[in-house]
Design goal:
The complex is a heterotrimer of chains A (about 170), B (about 230) and C (about 775).
Chain A lengths: L2 H9 L4 E2 H11 L8 H13 L3 E6 L8 E5 L1 H12 L11 H11 L4 H25 L2 H26 L1 H9 L1
Antiparallel strand pairs in A: 1-3, 2-3
Chain B lengths: L8 E10 L2 E11 L4 E5 L6 H8 L7 E6 L2 E2 L5 H11 E4 L11 H11 L4 H14 L15 H13 L5 E5 L7 H17 L3 E5 L3 H4 L4 E6 L2 E4 H4 L1
Parallel strand pairs in B: 3-8, 3-9, 6-7, 7-8
Antiparallel strand pairs in B: 1-2, 1-4, 4-5, 9-10
Helix pairs in contact in B: 3-4, 3-5, 4-5, 5-6
Chain C lengths: L2 H16 L2 H41 L17 E5 L2 E3 L2 E10 L18 E4 L1 H8 L4 H6 L3 E5 L11 E6 L12 E4 L14 H25 L4 H13 L4 H34 L18 H24 L1 E4 L2 E4 L9 H14 L14 H29 L5 H12 L1 H32 L12 E5 L5 H9 L4 E13 L8 E6 L2 H4 L3 E2 L8 E5 L14 E4 L11 E4 L5 E5 L11 E3 L13 E8 L6 H12 L4 E4 L3 H39 L1 H9 L4 H37 L8 H29 L9
Parallel strand pairs in C: 3-6, 4-5, 12-18, 14-17
Antiparallel strand pairs in C: 1-3, 1-7, 2-3, 4-6, 8-9, 10-19, 10-20, 11-12, 11-15, 11-19, 13-17, 14-18, 15-16
Classes of the chains: A mainly alpha (about 170), B alpha/beta (about 230), C alpha+beta (about 775).
InterPro entries (chain A): Tscrpt_reg_PadR_N, WH-like_DNA-bd_sf, WH_DNA-bd_sf
Pfam family, one (chain A): PadR
Protein name (chain A): PadR family transcriptional regulator
């Protein structure tokens, strides 16, 4: 996720303080991982340098956190371009799990066990997400569903791999 | 292995073969009151057979099944039927509502099988339909309602006797994810509110995620993931 | 639309008909059998008039008319023939003694050469009867050697018992009634006597009643497996066939079934034709060769039946829209209307009404009106039943779960249920009406003259010339005969030629005379004048007056034996004789008869039998035959006829039962089809803990409710039709409750059988396997 673009986008509705920006971000997108202040300010100074934002004013008694930022025309254009550019689908070609399974097979360990344990772990996560979804509002449900679908995809892979373990073992052994 | 203490329904070393096909090969299971346990596994793994054995619909070839301290193997068909009528509830993939009966009559059916009078059975049925938000369908026939509505009617029918154990076999299998979600939510909520144990057979992880715990069946053998981890 | 496309569609349908797996075959077979039975019945129906005509011709061709007071002179082409018909148990035996008088004497039809004296030629049926154990008694009565059989042309039925026996000296026994000299066989004046209108009516009704359920069944058979077929057609639509093509495919399927039916029908007909040779109804049997339907009618049947099944199929498809993704039933069908359904039976009654009270004496019934009326009444049943089922089922209230399941199912598809039951209802309605008609008409046909069967059960006429007293003694010694009283009768005229008045004369010994009058005292030689008879002739009983035995009438010469009324005559009060007649005229003991007068009298013996002796009648008949082959023994009884009716009722019941069984089989097939479609649901219900009893009972109710309604309606219509038909024949209306009950019982038996037979598959389907086909 591009934090720079996200912050820019938040500025489009009007100038804000860095502190406000962090709060708005956390509230809407930062469910699990709140932004660090440092992250906000380093990002803002980069945007400032690139001319995408400008300082709208500094409150008295100010440390660096008392700056008020506003988006520039170039900034608006940049946000627009970002939104219009499709994200490159994640391909997950580098998979730790796959590596683990192959290694287990190479070392004659129980690969099915690895898969089962992993599946239990995935389900545990899914159960937590489902529970949170049950209690949460629509935003919670959407974000949890996104995660659930990804986990489900992993689980499907686990199932498929479990069903193909024998074949895989034969190929690895060659 | 002995059944874990406090379990409502437990099975040990179940074996069942249909002709040359081995469906269960030493499967075990246990569930506590109020617990939702998912039975997972690929198709053909024997999970439906496990459910049928647990529910006393099919007698296993060997192994023991105890429900509330009673051994199912020692019961005859009539006793097991009576048990299913009074203590168990069932939801199937395709609702399996009786097409000639109206929805409320369908929901009232298990009560009537237990000998409740028609009027009282239908009153209770209507209450359950309200809880599952399908009370406006009471006078419609199953052919006239959507799949998701029909499945909710089926859930109401399964819960109308306030069973101790609810068996659900792919209850969302025929539904889209939105309707599936809703049915699972209503089903688990309702079951929790009556502290019914739910045996949930599914191959979908997202459905299994509504459970408290899962058991994986593969090649007729079961694996309790909680104990494994 | 090109022909080849048509042909392809039809052929595809035909292929579907044969490739539906085991179930498809069963359905196909049932359709075929149903259509086949219909075709066979139709063919038989068209053959019956022909058969009756052939029978009549043969009867005419062998006629030997022995009546007439003149005798033609002996020539080389004459023969003397004597009628020696007898009865054996319940069967008539046509018997003839023949004596050719010259080499050119014609042979009777079916006979190759005249049997010699003491020989006989017999019909095949008589031959086998005589050879069997049961025919021993008859064997004694016909002490002739069998030298040949009578060919088919000489017989009117395969079961006819007949013989020609060679005799000698028959000419001396020519009596112008039983024995006469002839020079040809065949009716000298062929009559175009028409069949009894009531019998024609019976025949008509029998065939309509038998054909109707078959027609209904064909209509129902054409809809067998309709839902499955509709789904198949929907699949065809999905791959691009248009609605006309699917309709043609359906027609092809129906056509295949009815063609199979035609083939089966031909087989059934040929089998039935052969079987017709071995049955006998109301003493009428036919030869298979009689049953040849006219070719035109055969063609008509061969075209009409397949056309009808295709029409029914297309009609059934009218209410269905077959879309590529499934079958859409025409929106909830409009509520069935009553008025036009009521119109049918009312119209039927209206057609029959003008013939009420017509009876048998006013010529034939209008065949079209009769058939039309009966058909409309029976069709009315099929029209009323769906309405009745729908209306009643809609009002059926709550009950047990089984009842609720059955009633709800019926409410949803009352039409299907009614269609299945229609055949049963029509069969039962027809059978009840027919049995009423049979029993009513039969009781009229068997109404006996008021013979007093408590005093005598047989009367044997003894040819003149045979000593009566000896004959009576012989009878008295016969096993099973309690008492034998010989009497003779004659006529006394007031002049020898063309008497102006004449009186009755009864001759017998004192004991025998007491059967007809209260005698103050009696010994041989006495003459009595009867008083209190039905036609007293006191003017003749004047002492000294000369009367003449056997007076001559113009043309007919009598013996004209003179007798003077004696001075001392006793008076005797006439009492009812065994035939319940009070005689009048004179009584004479044999000693009072003038010389030669005995020959002018006709003699007979009243027999009182001990019915506890088995075959008493047959022994008496054997004795009669011993005394003279021409002695005619007639049994008085009213019990035999009702026995005959019992056999008709049995036959009808068997026929109706066969139709019911056929319909039951189709009910079963559709029931099983329906159950199979619901196997998952059934398994689910079992999972809930539904008892087998509950589901079994629901299947029972589901069959029983429509059949009960059908039987109720059928009984009403059947009784109405029966009453109307009886009124038409001017017969008192009497309900034959036994047949009503037996038909209702047969219907109930079908329900039970269908339910019982669907139980094993039901229980098999209730096994949880049905749940595990995901």
């Amino acid at each position: 996720m591009s934090i720079g673009h996200t912050l820019l986008g938040l500025l489009e509705s009007g100038p804000r303080h860095g502190y406000d920006l962090k709060r708005a971000f956390d509230e809407k997108f930062g469910h699990d991982r709140p932004l660090h202040y440092g992250q906000v300010y380093s990002t803002m100074s980069r945007l400032l340098k690139n001319g995408l934002v400008e300082v709208d004013g500094i409150e008295s008694g100010g440390g660096p956190e008392r700056k008020r930022y506003a988006i520039t025309d170039a900034g608006v254009t940049d946000v627009e371009r970002w939104l219009a550019t499709p994200e490159k689908p994640e391909e997950y070609l580098q998979s730790t799990l796959y590596t683990k399974v192959v290694l287990a097979l190479l070392t004659h360990r129980d690969a099915a066990d690895i898969l089962d344990v992993q599946r239990a772990e995935h389900l545990r996560s899914m159960r937590i997400l489902t529970d949170r979804k049950r209690r949460g509002d629509l935003a919670d449900q959407l974000i949890c569903d996104h995660a659930l679908f990804h986990l489900e995809a992993d689980l499907r892979w686990l199932e498929l791999t479990a069903a193909r373990l024998d074949k895989l073992r034969a190929e690895v052994a060659r | 292995m002995t059944p874990p203490p406090g379990s409502l329904l437990a099975a040990e070393d179940l074996r069942k073969a249909y002709g040359p096909t081995v469906a269960l090969d030493g499967a075990a299971f246990s569930i506590h009151p109020g617990e939702v346990v998912a039975v997972m596994g690929p198709s053909g793994s024997g999970k439906s057979t496990l459910l049928h054995c647990l529910a006393g619909i099919v007698p296993p070839d060997s192994g023991s099944i105890t429900y509330a301290g009673r051994e199912l193997a020692t019961m005859n068909d009539a006793q097991r039927s009576a048990l299913r009528r009074s203590e168990f509830g069932f939801v199937f993939q395709f609702g399996q509502l009786v097409p000639e009966l109206t929805c409320v009559e369908n929901v009232a059916l298990p009560l009537r099988l237990n000998g409740t009078s028609r009027r009282e059975a239908e009153r209770t049925a209507l209450g359950w339909m309200e809880r599952l938000e399908v009370d406006d369908l009471a006078k419609k026939r199953p052919g006239e309602v959507s799949g998701g509505q029909g499945q909710r009617v089926a859930v109401a029918r399964a819960l109308v006797t306030t069973p101790k154990v609810l068996f659900a076999d792919e209850p969302t299998g025929a539904l889209d994810s939105l309707n599936g979600e809703r049915v699972m939510e209503l089903l688990t909520d309702a079951a929790r509110s009556t502290s019914a144990a739910v045996v949930l057979v599914t191959h979908e992880a997202r459905v299994a995620a509504w459970s408290d715990r899962e058991i994986v069946v593969r090649d007729g053998k079961s694996r309790d993931m909680e104990r494994a981890v | 639309m090109n022909v080849r496309q048509w042909w392809r569609d039809l052929a595809m349908g035909a292929r579907f008909a044969f490739t539906g797996g085991r179930e498809g075959w069963v359905r196909m077979l049932l359709t075929g059998v149903g259509v086949g039975l219909g075709v066979a019945l139709l063919l038989l129906t068209t053959a019956v008039p022909n058969a009756l005509a052939v029978r009549h011709e043969r009867e005419e061709a062998r006629l030997d008319y022995t009546y007439g007071r003149t005798t033609q002179p002996r020539a080389d082409d004459t023969f003397v023939i004597a009628d020696t018909d007898t009865t054996f148990r319940q069967s008539e035996v046509r018997g003839r003694l023949v004596e050719p008088e010259g080499p050119r004497a014609p042979l009777p039809p079916g006979v190759g050469r005249y049997p010699g004296v003491g020989e006989m030629v017999v019909s095949p049926a008589l031959k086998s009867l005589l050879a069997s154990d049961g025919g021993k008694l008859l064997r004694k009565r016909l002490p002739y050697r069998i030298v040949g059989t009578i060919g088919e042309p000489g017989l009117v039925g395969s079961h006819e018992l007949a013989y020609y026996a060679g005799a000698q000296g028959l000419a001396a026994r020519i009596d112008h009634s039983q024995v006469n000299r002839l020079d040809h066989y065949g009716d000298p004046a062929p009559s175009t006597e028409r069949a009894d209108p009531v019998l024609v009516l019976l025949t008509l009704v029998v065939f309509v009643v038998l054909l109707m359920p078959v027609a209904v069944f064909i209509a129902a058979a054409a809809r067998f497996g309709g839902e499955r077929r509709d789904r198949r057609l929907a699949a065809l639509r999905l791959v691009g066939s248009d609605s006309r093509m699917t309709r043609r495919t359906a027609a092809g399927e129906a056509l295949a079934g009815s063609l199979l039916g035609l083939v089966l029908g031909a087989v059934f007909f040929l089998a039935g034709r052969q079987a017709a040779g071995s049955v006998e109804i109301l003493d009428i049997s036919v030869f298979p060769s009689y049953l040849n339907p006219s070719p035109l009618l055969v063609v008509l049947v061969a075209v009409a039946v397949p056309a009808a099944t295709v029409a029914v199929t297309l009609l059934a498809l009218r209410g269905v829209v077959i879309e590529p993704l499934g079958v859409v039933r025409a929106a909830r069908p409009a509520r069935r209307r009553l008025w036009w359904r009521l119109l049918l039976p009312v119209a039927g009654l209206a057609m029959l009404a003008p013939m009420l009270g017509q009876g048998r004496d006013q010529g034939n019934f209008n065949q079209y009106l009769v058939s039309g009326g009966v058909i409309l009444l029976l069709v009315g049943v099929t029209a009323l039943l769906p309405w009745a089922v729908e209306t009643v089922v809609a009002r059926l209230g709550s009950g047990s779960v089984a009842w609720q399941l059955a009633v709800r199912r019926l409410q949803l598809s009352s039409g299907t249920a009614a269609r299945m039951v229609n055949g049963i209802a029509v069969a039962v309605a027809g059978a009840i009406a027919l049995q009423m008609l049979f029993s009513g008409v039969d009781s009229v046909y068997t109404t006996q003259s008021a013979n007093d069967v408590s005093r005598a059960q047989m009367q044997v006429s003894v040819p003149s010339g045979i000593p009566l007293a000896a004959a009576a003694r012989k009878f008295a010694r016969t096993p099973g005969v309690r008492r034998a009283e010989g009497l003779a009768g004659g006529e006394l005229g007031d002049s020898g030629k063309d008497p102006r008045s004449s009186g009755e004369l009864t001759v017998g010994d004192c004991r025998a005379l007491r059967e007809v009058a209260a005698l103050p005292s009696c010994r041989d030689g006495d003459v009595f004048v009867l008083e209190g008879g039905q036609h007293d002739t006191p003017q003749l009983a004047r002492s000294g007056r000369t009367l003449y035995f056997d007076p001559s009438y113009s043309g007919d010469r009598g013996a004209e034996i003179a007798w003077t009324v004696p001075r001392s005559m006793k008076r005797a009060r006439s009492v009812e004789d065994p035939t319940n007649v009070r005689r009048s005229g004179f009584l004479m003991t044999p000693g009072a008869l003038p010389a030669g007068a005995a020959r002018t009298l006709y003699q007979y013996v009243y027999l009182s039998l001990d019915e506890s002796v088995p075959e008493a009648k047959e022994y008496a008949r054997n004795t009669a035959a011993e005394i003279s082959p021409m002695a005619d023994a007639a049994a008085w009884a009213s019990t035999e006829q009702s026995k005959r009716f019992t056999s008709i009722r049995t036959g009808l019941l068997v026929g109706a039962a066969c139709v019911l069984a056929l319909i039951g089989a189709s009910l079963l097939v559709s029931q099983l089809e329906q159950l199979r479609e619901r196997r998952k649901l059934l398994s689910a219900l079992v999972a809930f803990g539904t008892r087998r009893r509950t589901l079994g009972l629901s299947v029972l109710w589901q069959t029983a409710v429509p059949i009960a309604l059908g039987l109720l309606l059928a009984t009403t219509v059947g009784l109405t039709l029966g009453a109307v038909l009886l009124r038409m024949t001017s017969t008192p209306v009497r309900v034959d409750w036994a047949s009503v009950l037996s038909m209702a019982g047969a219907g109930a038996a079908v329900v039970l059988a269908v339910t019982l037979l669907s139980m094993p598959p039901l229980f098999r389907l209730m096994r949880p396997d049905g749940l595990r086909t995901e």
